[in-house]
Amino acid sequence: MSGFELDARPVAAVVLSSQLAYGAVGNNVIARMIERAGLRTVAVPTVLLSNLPHYPTVSGGAISDQWLSGILTDLLDREALAQASYVVVGYLGSPSQARIIAEWFLAARGRYPQLRLILDTAFGDSDVGLYASEEVAASYGEYLIEHAWLMTPNAFELELLTESKIHDEQDAANAALDLMDAGPDHVIVTSAPTEDADFIGCLLVIDEENLEQFDTGRVQTEAKGAGDCFLGMLTGALLSDVSLIDAVAQSVAGTSEALSGVHPAFTVTCAE
Predict the structure, then answer these.
(1) Contacts of residue 111, Cβ cutoff 8 Å, sequence gap at least 6
(2) Which residues is 192 bridged to in the sheet?
(3) What does UniProt give as the signal peptide span (predicted)?
(4) Is residue 117 within a helix (H) or strand (E), and if so which, with residue range?
(5) By C-alpha distance, which of 192, 163, 193, 197 is closest to 179?
(6) pLDDT per position as a tens digit, 237-256
């Protein structure tokens, strides 16, 4: 690592997602959760916005292909990923970004075989429908899914990705297994169906014989970024050598507590 770096820790993960000047979604949450585990993270924006688009005004937009490609190339040239374990991909600003990231990831993994891709297909949800374009939604499948080690779609996204209907836990499991045929070793279905409407599920599909569902009480909130909070906590736990099952359980509980306002998820603690 270059002597220019004040933080001499090796990079543990690279996160590519949306980034806001004001707000707690995308990189603002994912990278922060990983950093809370005591791990150095590189956060690469796919879009740069002033705030959530739910406010009356929003400024900014997608990072250009030239900028994104250049940033990723520089990371390889700096050998920043030499000891990294995960590349985490979330929200994309344009379809071409999926191609750029996929090509870069293959080059990075060729140099550093330990790298694994965690893919969150962040393009829609049941309460709002698609919040990315249809072209962006399709680009995940065209370029990235085949390279993923783990995917974390919500039930709405999983339906679109597999062209299926999900009414219950078995439907979610079957759709996740279909998705695994396209690439990922494991799938976590967030916002999975439960028998009790007062609960929301998170279904981990390790393989055809190993499925675990974690149910937690629904929290009434308009806050955005729950999926990003879960993804960051999950990645931080995995980087801390927590098993996949335990990492999901911890992240489900932590996200629920954060939404309830009882978990210090966004508290920054300075080392003495």
Answers:
(1) 76, 81
(2) 201
(3) none
(4) strand 116-119
(5) 163
(6) 999 999 999 999 999 999 88
Cα 210 to Cα 144, 183, 245, 264, distances in angstroms: 24, 17, 10, 32
Contacts of residue 189, defined as CB under 8 A and 6 or more positions apart, other chains included, come to 153, 154, 155, 158, 172, 175, 176, 201, 202, 203, 205
* pTM over 0.90, yes/no: yes
Kindly give, in sequence order, each residue whose CB lies less than 8 Å from that of residue 11, ignoring residues fewer than 6 positions away: 40, 41, 42, 80, 81, 83, 84
For the chain, give the number of residues.
272
- 210: its two tokens: 């190993």
- In angstroms, the CA 205 to CA 15 distance is 23
Q: How far apart are CA 248 and CA 267, in angstroms?
A: 21
Angle, vertex CA 212, rays to CA 211 and CA 217, nearest 5: 145
The encoded tokens of residue 7 equal: 């933080």
Q: Tell how far CA 98 is from the center of its chain.
A: 14
pLDDT band at 268 (very low <50, low <70, confident <90, very high): very low
- The reported pLDDT for the residue numbered 223 is 62
Instruction: Please give the average per-residue pLDDT across 202-228, as a whole number.
Output: 83
Q: How confident is the model at residue 270 (pLDDT cuts 50, 70, 90)?
A: very low
Q: Which pairing describes strands 129-130 and 124-125: parallel, antiparallel, or unpaired?
A: antiparallel
Number of Cβ within a 10 Å radius of residue 13 = 28
